[in-house]
Amino acid sequence: MIPIDIIQKTAETLMDKAAIEIPQDYLDGLQAAADVEDGDLSSFVLQAMLENYEAAKEDRRAMCGDTGTPRWYVKMGNETQIEGGPIALEAALRRATANATNGVPLRPNRVHPLWRTDHDNNVGIGAPEIEYGYEPGGEWIDLITVHKGGLFGTDYRMLFPSDGIEGIKRFYLDSLVAFGKRGLACQPAIIGIGLGGCKDTCMVLGKRAACLRTVGSENSDPKIAALEREFKEIGNSIGMGAMGFVGKSMVVDCNIEVGYCHTGGMQMSVHAFCLSSRRAVARVFADGRVEYRTDPNWFTDYQRRETVEWDAPAMEAAE
Amino acid sequence: MSPRKIRLSTTPTQGALDDLQLGDIVYLDGLMYTAREGVYKRALEEKANIPMELPRDSAANFHCSPAARINPDGSFEMGAVTATASFRFAKWLPEWMEKSGAKLIIGKGGMTSKDYKSFFVPNGAIYLSTVGYGTGALLGRGVEKVEAVHWNEELGLAQAMWVIKCNNMGPFIVASDKNGDCLFERENAKIAENLHRVYEGTRPATLKRYGETDDRSDEVI
Questions:
Q1: Which UniProt keywords apply (chain B) (predicted)?
Q2: Which of A19, A58, A256, B162 could form a disulfide with A62 if both were Cys (CB 3.0 to 4.6 A apart)?
């Protein structure tokens, strides 16, 4: 049984870490982009960003004033039990979100869509989002918070099999150029692409590809991994850099995730995580131990499974 | 070549403004206030009295809401400061400039050269863009003090009018000049020359989108 007070305390620490500490994998990716960038203005912007991440850590202040729309991804091992059950878990995550908004402080971004009511704590109807995943075996809970900006850089399109890879490339480029101009997408960024699923799951896949995979990670399907590398290179050859200035850094990494879709369709979504790509992760064990990390490790073989049954040997090994 | 760096007052002289060139990097000193949807609506549509003496106290309007809180004792804690996209506020700005005497409009992404020529140039105003759209911590360091927060009860913390005292606050990039030229449009034009090459071999989607033009005879196939 995982104690609920440890979950809430850990969640509050994660909110603080996500807002303030840029993940190392992303920082390395951005440094690599800065090393090859030769546009005058783009280079200046990237250097300023690198200085900004240092300033955030030194001062313990949020790296970006728009602290996005904080959300939670929760994953549990199959044997996990939480003190108070799922209702207590959700209450703890909502409390942590509200407390950290006031504590760090974060910007209270969340308002009612029509009445613009602001509770000044990033909590409201459906906010923060809490999504779940499960893994065979184990008694632990992974808490993952992502603070992603919420206005630009994301798009969806229904493509068809006849659109082919050329159609996918076209929509990818359209999305990067459309939101890259004037830097609305806050590039360079991790670009996530969702392919397939249904309209809603396609958006979910693309968002998770952007927010829950690290820079340098690859899809387990080698042909998709090759597409990821190709798309990263295409994105960086547009001639556009940070803030939409002339340059060559648009894409710090490109991650693609797929889901089975309607036989007639080929749904596609594109998501740009922010220049300040904010995520933080912790695993809490039943004995109260907490391990912090920055890799969500969300897309396991189990999450990408294709078969009716999950094969037994892997399950036994995990147990 | 690295860009030119300039320190500028938030109540700048016309000479200092006229001297700014596209791509210059600016650091600000003096009082600055935030204003976005909520403030414009309240001041211009609901005709509420602006709770500051403008432009005497400040001629710098920041399209921003900070990551900040008001403590129970009434003091302020301001962490990071980042701008929001300015194009959404174009419809209020001509009247706002007339009313407030704003000379520096600071935000994200700039506005169009048409906007600059039609109401920035006649008012002698300049647009400054934040950098990278994420240097919130660096800008936060430039906040010497939060002087006041107006209308937070009416508008909420994210839409309130924050008055901040800047000390060497930056970096910002000059995105419009005295002629109304636009830095982002200049860059867009250079990038556009190359776009046909990167698009080579791609093709438009089979299913089109309806409603993005005013031509109601459009079809999606």
A1: Lyase
A2: A19
Give the closest of B65, B159, B188 to A244, CB-based. Answer: B188
Q: Which residues of A touch B108 (CB under 8 A)?
A: 183-184
Does A316 have pLDDT greater than 70?
no
The CATH T-level fold of domain B5-199 is fumarase (3.20.130)
Q: Tell me the mean pLDDT in the region B74-79.
A: 88
Among A298, A278, A173, A280, which residue's Cα sits nearest to residue A234?
A173
A95 touches chain B (CB under 8 A): no
Q: Which residues contact A233 (CB under 8 A, 6 or more apart)?
A: none
Q: Rg of chain A over CA atoms, in angstroms?
A: 20
Domain boundaries, chain B: 5-199
- What are the Cα distances from residue B207, in Å, to A162, A203, A269? 11, 18, 15
Local confidence band at B139 (pLDDT 50, 70, 90 cut-offs): very high
* B84 and chain A in contact, CB less than 8 A: yes
Whether B160 contacts A205, CB under 8 Å = no
Write out the two tokens for B154. 């009416």
Q: Which of B69, B132, B188 sits opposite A45 (nearest CB)?
A: B132
Residues within 8 A of B (CB atoms), A 135-194 only: 151-152, 157-160, 162-163, 166-167, 169-171, 173, 177, 181-184, 186
Q: Please state, rounded to an integer, the average pLDDT across all residues of chain A.
A: 95
User: A195-234: string of b/e by CB count within 10 Å (b at 16+)?
Assistant: bbbeeebbbbbbbbbbbbbbbebebeeeebeebbeebbeb
Question: Using CA atoms, how far apart are residues A97 and A271, in angstroms rounded to an integer?
Answer: 23
Residues in Cβ contact with A36 at an 8 Å cutoff, skipping those fewer than 6 apart: A248, A249
User: Per DSSP, which regions of A138-219 are E strands?
Assistant: 140-147, 154-159, 189-196
pLDDT over 80 at A111, yes or no: yes
Mean local confidence (pLDDT), A213-219: 98
Task: Supply φ then ψ for residue B105, to 5 degrees.
Answer: -110, 120
The yes-or-no verdict on residue B42 having pLDDT over 90 is: yes
| A&B contacts, CB < 8 Å | 202
DSSP state of B21: -
- Put simply, whether B76 touches A (Cβ < 8 Å) is no
Task: Summarize pLDDT for A21-43 with one digit per residue, the tens.
Answer: 999 999 999 999 999 999 999 99
The domains of chain A are located at 4-17+63-148+279-318, 150-272
Residue showing tokens 């399109």: A157
C-alpha to C-alpha distance for A185 and B98, rounded to whole angstroms:
32
User: Has the ipTM of the complex gone over 0.85?
Assistant: yes
